[in-house]
């Protein structure tokens, strides 16, 4: 059972999403919030598997709430669910720690799939969001040079990150400590000149290490 917290300042959106997810027996809506401050409180107390987070809200917005939740409850995976699709919104949201970014024109199957992906620790991004990330990154020649900076072990960690494994899961698979994996991840982000796991995964996609999502 996936525990889901839904955050949106529009009551109609909240009630509609709650009603929709009630049709799926493997997803339980454990809470709702209409602002970032309340979302942070509930995420820390309820520890849902996934938070579906709106961006623009009164008081604490979605980006700041994402940052606060990931600081206090790093195991909670956050999907931004927004009608805004601009680089100035996408990049800060992912840098704050969101694992996914889904647009509000998504269909019910797309939303359900995104929640399942996020619960597994997998990156879930709308293709238009991927385009923003790709445009921000280096040219292919520069990118290839940065990828070559990774050691064989770091490349293995990056591939596992791209498959949605958490640090703890990667540690078990590689038979090392979680602290060692954490160090590897930090070096990967530094060498690829990105600031989040999600951006590193997109980098891996663009470099051909893993496949880009279909449009």
What coarse outline follows from CA principal-axis ratios?
Answer: globular
CATH architecture classification name of the largest domain: 3-Layer(aba) Sandwich
Q: What is the CATH class of the largest domain?
A: Alpha Beta
How many structurally independent domains?
2
- Within CATH, the superfamily of the largest domain carries the name Response regulator
Q: Order of strands across the biggest sheet?
A: 2-1-3-4-5-6
Unreliable sequence segments: none
Q: Could you tell me the radius of gyration in angstroms?
A: 17 Å
Q: Which strand-content bin applies to the residues?
A: 5-15%
CATH fold-level topology of the largest domain: Rossmann fold
Number of helices: 11
Going by helix content, strand content and strand pairing, the class is: alpha/beta
Number of E strands:
6
